[in-house]
Amino acid sequence: MTDSIALVGRTNVGKSLLFNKLVQYKNSIVLNKHGVTRDVNQGKLLYEDKYLHLYDTAGITSQDEQFTKLAYEKTLQAIDKSSVVLFVTSLEDGVTSSDKEICSILRKLNKEIILVINKSDKQKSILKKYEFSELGINNSFEVSAKTNKGLLDLIKKTFSLTNSGIYSEIKTNRIAFIGKPNVGKSTLINSILNESRSIISDTPGTTIDSLEIPFTFKDQNYLIYDTAGIMKKSSTKDIINKYSINMSLKCINDANVCILVISGTELVSKQDKNIFNIIKENNKPFILVINKVDLINKNDMKKLRSSIDYFSNILFGTKIIYLSALENRNIRKLLFTIKGLVSNLHKEYRPSKLTKILNDACNKHPVKNNRNRLIKLKFAKQNKSSDFSISIHGNQTDKIPDSYRKYLVNYFSDQLGLSGVPIRLIFKKEKNPYDMGSNSK
Description:
Layout: E1 4-8, H1 15-23, E2 41-47, E3 50-56, H2 66-81, E4 84-90, H3 97-108, E5 112-118, H4 126-131, E6 140-142, H5 151-160, E7 165-166, E8 173-179, H6 185-193, E9 211-217, E10 220-226, H7 239-254, E11 257-263, H8 270-281, E12 286-291, H9 298-314, E13 319-322, H10 331-345, H11 351-364, E14 377-382, E15 388-394, H12 402-416, E16 423-428
Parallel strand pairs: 1-3, 1-4, 4-5, 5-6, 8-10, 8-11, 11-12, 12-13, 15-16
Antiparallel strand pairs: 2-3, 3-7, 9-10, 14-15
C-alpha cells in the first residue's frame, strides 16, 4: 500500500509553496498572509517511477477561531493517515514558541518526523541555524521552496522512510464543483466521497483553496475540484478572495465537466447566471445541481422550477438534478450522470457519419445567405481537441446566420445523443479533403 506524508507547521512558513514545488503543480494559494490554507489539499509526490500521497495541511495556530479549530481537526486527520510528517519551519524566523508547541504535539502522535527548515535561500547566522537543534529532531533539511534548494535530498530521504507505489499515468476526468459561496459544494462532495474531507461551515467563504480530490466510481478515475465560492465583484476586495476566485476560474478552464451548484432555498440569482456564462464561454459540459431540496416546500419548489427553466431555454440538453447533500438524496443519480456525460465527451465519430447528419440537417432546413442564395455545406469532421468540436466545410460559410448555427448544434446533439455536451462548430470555406474530384480514376 502506498504511504502518505503530511506537510505540517505553523502558518506562513511556506508549506503551500513547498507543496506546489513537490507536486510540481500550482494547486494551492500562496500568499504572504497568515491562515490562507484552511483545508487539506493533496497531490502525488513523484520520484523516478515511484509515488507517495502528499497532504498540504492548514497552519497550526493557537488562535481560538472557528475555522482554526476545524482546520486543526483536519490537520490531525491528515497526520493520522500519514506515515511520515514533514515538519516545516522557517529559518528566517528561527524557532518560535509555536514551533515548539507543534513539535510537542507531533511527538505525542508517534510519527516519523523530518524537520524541514524552509526559507534558507538567504545567508543566515550559524547561531540561528543552531537554534533548530533544540527541537531534538535527528532528520533535518535546510531547503528553499522558492529556489528549489535541498528539495531533491528531502525527497530522497522521504522515499527511503516510506513504502511508495509504482507510478503510471492513469486517464483521469476532472470534475469542478462551481457556485456561489454557501450553496453546499463541500457538503455535496463529502456526501460523494462518503467521508468528511472538506471543512463545512455556514459561514460563506470557508473554502478558499481549490481542492483536488481523487475519486473512483464504476472503474472510472476522477479528480474532484472543490472550488471557492465565486462572489460578486463588489465582494472581492480582499486579496485572498481575489486569488481564490482566480483559482476557481482556472479550475473551470481545466475541468472536463463542471457541476454548477445552486441553493434550492433561493431563486436563480444574477450571480448564478454569471457563473453559468463563464462555464458556457469555456464550452464545458455541465450539470446543474439544485441542492438543499430538503428545505423547500411544494409552493417554493414550483417557483424554483420556473426559475431554473432559464438554463434549459439558453442551452439545449441541460442536465438538471434536484438533490439534498445533507440527506444523501439523489447522490448516485448525480454520479451516474457525471459518468454518462464524461463518456459522451470522449466519443469519436467517423467523418462519414457526421457528414450524413449534416446533409440530413441541410435537406430538412436549407440555409441561405442574405441574398436568398443557397449555402452548400458539404463535409463534417470531428476535431482533435479538449472539447467536442466539429469542422464543417462548404461555400460561403461566413454568411451562415447565428440562428442556423444553433440549429446545427442542436441537430448534431440530438442525432448523436450528446445531451449536455456543448458542441463547437468551426466553419471553413474549403473543399472536402476526402473528395478526389470528378476527374480521378
